[in-house]
Fold these 3 entries.
Entry 1:
Amino acid sequence: MNTMVETMNRVTDALSAVELAQERAFCQTVGDFTVPNPRMTCRDVEVWYGPKQAIRRVNLDIGRNEVLSMIGPSGCGKSTFLRCLNRMNDTIPGCRVTGSIKLDGQDIYDKKLDPVLLRARVGMVFQKPNPFPKSIYENVAYGPRIHGLTNSKAELDELVETSLRKAGLWDEVKDRLDQPGTGLSGGQQQRLCIARTIAVAPDVILMDEPCSALDPIATAIIEELIDELRANYSIVIVTHSMQQAARVSQRTAYFHLGDLIEVGETNQIFTNPQHKLTEDYITGRFG
Amino acid sequence: MNKPAPQITPTGRPNPVDIVRASLKRRYARERRFRWLGATAVLIGLLCVVLLFADIILKGYTAFQQTYIRLPIALEAESIDPEGTGARAAIEDADYLALIRNALFELFPEVRDRQERRLLTSIVSVGAPNLVREYVLAHPDRIGTTQEIWVPATADIDMLMKGHINRDLPEAERRVKDQTLGWIDRLAAEGRIAKRFNTPFFVNGTSREPELAGIAGALMGSFYTLLLTLILSFPIGVGAAIYLEEFAPRNRWTDLIEININNLAAVPSIVFGLLGLAVFIGFFGMPRSTPLVGALVLTLMTLPTIIIASRAALKSVPPSIREAALGVGASSLQTQFHHVLPLAMPGMLTGTIIGMAQALGETAPLLMIGMIAFIVDIPQGFTDMATVLPVQIYLWADSPERGFVERTSAAIMVLLAFLFAMNLAAVLLRRRFERRW
């Protein structure tokens, strides 16, 4: 589905970690990876790109109405793991996922489960803002329209408005809904992408470094937005900024070379890490 | 400007700044040479294009005019419609050549010798009787009167009037003899000769007589052939590109297909003609020399071009757009048709137009399937015998008559105009589809 170049880049990103991972002994996760009444449960998840292993036996729960942040050095597998959660990895040739990932008790890698349906329930916001080259209105209306979520134009208008309001973008764009989404600023584009994701009414929102292409002010707005969205959605966010993880998330998972090293309350991870690698990373000794 | 004295670093080596400065002159000179070469190349190219166009236009512009002779033709009732029935069939069957001859003999009563009379008659085109017939059919009420009718002159007279025949040559070396020259001069003095816009060139099919030959048959042949080629090759090419680029698994078979498509783009076009002859005409028994077969052959020829360009266009669509669509739950096909295809469309159209322009100018494969035949009738559909513009140009360029020289150039101009129109359409379409992201 993706172009070869894109695929190769992604694969090589993951491989640097992978090669090291294969030489090291498996590292047992420190901390409690379970939560009561989880939205998603991942057990013994392993990911291979061809013969190379990118993720090793990751166990992790994603709770309801929580923000879970995933941190770790580049190529540690956190993005790979995130993309397993809505099967975006399906599009990469040679990518293989084993173990079980359940959404509300249902295995998402089950043959009976349609990835299109899954992606409607587990939305995704990408690293670079990627609005469709269409109008602001069309950007938000596209998801509901292909899924047939609304019955009338009025209903769709309303859904577009609520989604844009939830994304905190309505007041800025309500007078120019027919203008191209690509004409907005970077931060606005990213909020438009969030509105587009919300419009499909997912249970879980995956965010892959959503602020890495934004300035500090736009980042602050998005972080505030993430905190508000927590009331209705489960959010998993991959970030390179430890400050961001500390600010927005309740739980933090630290990945290192394909292993989930440590997971726990964000406060505890940043103030009192249990594992040596976690401590090294958050104190800035490497990464 | 004062040059600072070269500084010597503690190691005893010259300062790097001085080394760089010393090399700058040489580097800039190299850049200037390259620019100069480029500009010269562009200039030479432009000069050649200007020369080519000037040559074509200078040779061809006269073809858009045609010499006509105004004759007072007596439309006698007894020779056109002797029974006075007014029936169309009777009028169509009348001997209009006789009427024209009579008109000429009236104008030149001193010409009595049979041979001379034949020579006199020959200044009028053999197509003239047809013209008079059409005139009478359009105005049956004028039978019985004498009408001044403009009839086309024969090609030699046309060439004479356009200055392509040198009057100063000795008579033996001249196509138009002294006697004829005298008649023409007299007609000209009486205001009976004029050059008028050459409508027949645009509405007639081809002919053995240059003054009657027109481009319409070839133009319609090209139009039908290209239309069908476009209808076939664009959807097939784009569909193939989408499948190969987005859906096909990557394995040895698809690699083989890819290599073969690239190779097919470089196969000599006459090979496609042979294939068309063997498969479409020989095996499937399709009518030869028709736009249908021509279009099928040209489709095979253009497909690789369109597929390669379309795949490149698909590749250039940012993957983030695909991810965005998949991320909100669009299926693969929806992702392609709603998001990727609109963005790739301008590139696909460019490839298609390049392919079509190639097809428009293609001659060799069409020769193989019989589109070189001499076809006077203007084709009315995809299964009528037809020829195409480049083949027509080739045929005319091959004809010995002086009148065909200017017509060849004129036909080239029509072909180029056709090409410009197509390119313009492509540019406009592309601008319409182009969106930034």
Entry 2:
Amino acid sequence: MRVEEAATTSPYVDLMFIFFFLLYATLATVGIIVLRKLFRNNPVEVELEKKYPSIEKGDS
Amino acid sequence: MTYEIIGITVLWLFLYGYVIVASIDFGAGFFSYYAKKTKKDHIINQLISRYLSPVWEVTNVFFVFFFVGIVGFFPDTAFYYGTALLVPGSIAIILLAIRGSFYAFESYGSKQSNVYMFLYGATGLLIPASLSTALTLSEGGFITETNGEITMNYLKLFTSPYSWSVVFLAIVSVLYISATFLTFYASRANDTEALKLVRKYALFWGTPTIIAALTTFIALGQHNQRHYDRMLDLWWVFGLSMGFFMISLGLIYIGKYYGLAFISVMLQFFFAFFGYGASHLPYILDPYITIYENATHQSTGIALIIVFIAGLFLLVPSLILLMKLFLFNADYVKGKK
Amino acid sequence: MFDMDPVLMSRLLTTMTLLFHIIFATLGVGVPLFISIAEFIGIRKKDPHYLMMARRWARGFVITVAIGVVTGTAIGLQLSLLWPNFMQVAGNVISLPLFMEVFAFFFEAIFLGIYLYTWDRFKNQMIHWAFSLPVVIGGGMSAVFITTVNAFMNTPEGFTTGQDGFVTINPIQAMLNPATPTKVFHVLASSYVTVAAILATIAAFSLLKKKSSEYHKKALKLTMMATFIFAILTAIAGDMSAKFLAKEQPEKLAAAEWHFQTEEGADLILFGWLNEQDMPVGAIRLPGLLSFLAHGDFSSEVTGLEEIPEDERPPLWIHYMFDLMVSIGMALVLIPLLYLILMKTKKWNEHHKWMLRLIVLGGPLAMLSIEFGWIYAEEGRQPWILRGL
């Protein structure tokens, strides 16, 4: 079976392409922003000290 | 029992599972947005997010199970529904994607934002509305095949009273299921303030649910006489559903046994859903797809059923563990863990 | 809507969804393994740094899982929405692994939920660690099952057809078609190496910014060693894949290598371009190496593109995809090797600025290599969606 025999015949695929492009662009952008916020606002040194206060200073 | 019947029963079970867990989720989205608008969010949002956080992904999988399963058991559905549903299907995916990912972004990522909350609430109503269209289409009359070309009559869909009554039924059912679950969950958490609020929601959405169900039934009579007659043959199943509805509403009204009340709601929808499904048979898409003529090859069907049973042995204990840890662990529910 | 060809647009939309989804799918397969390893080391050595590593990786992982889930749902539905005729036919044979994939994912999702919300709930930390195992296995098995579907599109087997379609179907044989073993091995190994390289990128980047931090140094050492091991496994898997292609899908290999005439002792052509007579120009020629890649023997015969009917040949530009994928694969062996040599040699410093900069490049390159590899795999199957049927 060749690719052209398998595809849909609906004329709206191009419009859906635009919708999905916008969706993925949003997901990528917001995802990156959220990830950056998540780690920027919570550096590992601070978290280590909070969670394991016994850890020696300067070691982390 | 033939493998076709087993197949469609399994699929219907998955769809029923999705209807219940997704309704809880969709409704919760609406309620938390509504609570925010009426400045009551501090009362219930903690409750909602404690339940939803660990389970949101699980909800989505029920849906994926259903559509992968139906294409597996009845591959012709891919051809008819796949071609006809390109636009509504894509819109539903986009809404689901926005909802799922933004929910995760909000709860794991940053603090509350109005945009997230709005999206979370709005998609909670739009998704059931758009997904319910597939059930409307299955009654026939909207999708037509001429010389192997599938066309979908959008004008007829948007002007059909049946189609709109299904949308209405879907939305109010979502709200009723969700409200009764949250009532049960709040009572488990001993959160009296939240309980008062969500119990009010539950009592409010009970009556519209039954009105919508009756309207849909009447509208179906005008749209698909055959299905309507078959439903009348199964009157006792719908009678049971009605009975459980009365029990659930009664229990919530007297303010006792909220767990039993939610189980009654589940049974109410179980009987209604299976009564609807059984009377729909043998058609999956009236008149093009029937479970007998369009089922997959027997060996594939049997392999799918075996995998399904093996999978259940894996999943049911895992799900029980999940529920024990989060849903039925009193300390967790109360927010102590 | 805009009068674009539905076939072309369906291909483009599927391409876009897959290229986006594969990033998160790769992370979904690989990250749980490293979370699990870090937590295990942390518990065993009672080292809070490793425990913190597991926590922080898991926290970031959830965000990527969310995108992976929703884009995975999208591609699952798009298969039916954009390729209804394909699913109508292939659904009969290959729905079994699709169904199994959902089970594997379900299993993974349940335990991921448990894992994320039970960090401090058990006295015995090993119980919490044990919850990571179903996540690792579920993620790996999802990849295995879904890869069998892709393998089936390349070498469909496990059925016989008559006048009205399928006569017999053996779904297990369809799953275990000839392309399955090498493809599954390649996908798994490359997912793990990519994730190791990306986690190493994060560690190296933090070290460059903050100079010395014990936490990041430990993370870097762990991920560099993993990158090295999995990069070698990926290279072995790649070699096996080439030998599989030479035997079962020669047109895919020939198009990637610009190998036009069937000949013995075939040269491997790297990069370059094609002139008007379709002759490679400006390329690096490695004598006999294509024969070695294809059959493990420098003088063996390799099928050329001339033997394939013209309308069944894949596009020739996939050559670049193949070469880029392999070059990055090689780099991912060499970067950690250099790091390990620097580490083992007392006098040298493995945290040198330039070493770290090189490692920072590794992660994004590895993900690019995944993208190139999939473009090659999918374009190399053209014009077929089910090869030869």
Entry 3:
Amino acid sequence: MLPKFSYVRPDKLAQAVKHLETDKAVIHAGGTDLLGCLRERIMDGDLLVSLGGLKGLAGIKETADGGLSIGALTTITEVSENRLVRDKYPGLAQGAAEVASPQLRNQGTLGGNLCQKPRCWYFRGEFHCLRKGGGLCFAIKGENQFHAIFGHDKICAITHPSDTAPVLVALNASVDVVGPAVNRSIAVEDLHVPPAEDVRAETVLKRGEIITRITIPAPAPNLYSSYRKIRARRSWDFALAGAALAFAMDGDRVSRANVVLSGAAPVPWRSTAMEEVLSGSTLTAETIFRAARAAVAEARPLAGNQYKVEMFRGMLEEELRKVGKGGEV
Amino acid sequence: MSKDDQDNRHCEGYTRRGFIQFIGVGAGVVGASLISQPFNGPVLANEDDQVLPAASMVKVRLKINGNRYEVLAEPRWSLLYVLREIIGQTGTKLGCDRGECGACTVLIDDLPRYACLTLAVEVENREITTVEGLMNGEELGPVQTAFAENDAFQCGYCTPGQVMAVEGLLRKVESPSADEIRSGCSGNLCRCGAYQNIFAAADQAARLKKS
């Protein structure tokens, strides 16, 4: 049984914002992560503010510049199956299709997928870890085979669990945020907080703020986008290693490469080292080898997850070989 | 199935809870025709942007297998809890209670979802289908028939959830490929490992539904 909470389902956004300013108010969109977090006492929610009454926050529409505006309450299933998404950004459709299970994709929302709590068996278990206000990260010296190899700074080694966030970062997407003070737009790249900045926060969102839409700019000319996820089993699981690619292609030359890794770091991990090797290059065997090596050169694996370094390197090579070949190796 | 329900209700006293309010008949398959009032009125849990206090009982209108129920529920109660413990329809199973095993799978507006991770207040006025709703009177529906004929279970505990996942898949995809079947069943665990027979049952169910 879930702990007790009061409940409100406003039908106006301004009302939702007002309720969310209450102490210990939490947002319920799809609820798939929230209810688990409340049940496990990871989150403390006294007032559950349901967004279910806000009808304008679902659905996918084309923007004037040829990009897409996706309502935050659009389900992951809808994102994965939508014709516009599949045509313009196949990588996003692939990422959405790789999320969790059919049941969770039917319920979970794109906004919620960006805001979910991280995955770590200490954080999700009965450990009063650093991220929950305790004194240390148990994963750094503990059982860390599924943990981060990048960006943990030996502070907190969770991996960001989203399969859509890496793709949205690679596609230069932003989120529209409505809040009590001002409404603002935040690049998805700037949405998540690395542990070195604040180990208690997952996103930069402030109390009362709600993501209303996700906006993706028009696809670059000859955009190639893809998402690959390696996991321990085919049925639902989080990424051991994943990669979102968004390449602007000029013939067989990559004019601009965006590479964002999942299952890698406490935030969607942008591999600028790999992007630098690829941008302006033709994808020869030698470039592919150098690019994948550059991506893992900055890895700082922990005792139990050194295998991830080679896993990322091999996967990135495979993914680069598919570019321009219709997805076939 | 309905006998099972009735037994449970008598043994454990679900019907004696004073706060239960049924419009029509609670026991599942015979209620619909007794409802005369229209079902599109205001959602009671949402009147006037009102905060429902914790542990308060709120009237929740549910539409389950075509029957309408009005129950008193706390905001924190899951659809699974209300189905099993309040309404007394125990076909939907409690497994992990954390959205991982799929035993509680039901359809909401034809899409499979986990009833354990769905608040009852969140699915007011939506079309909820449980395994009880797949029966044709006393006859098994096509997916249930296919599961029986393909021996698609051992202990049977996960079966209602597996059946609902397959039912949801087939409502969306008429003739799923082997990959689509595996993907459609990927949110449901079977500890007995009857997966091969479950996939075969899904394949046969697609044909039975068309015939």
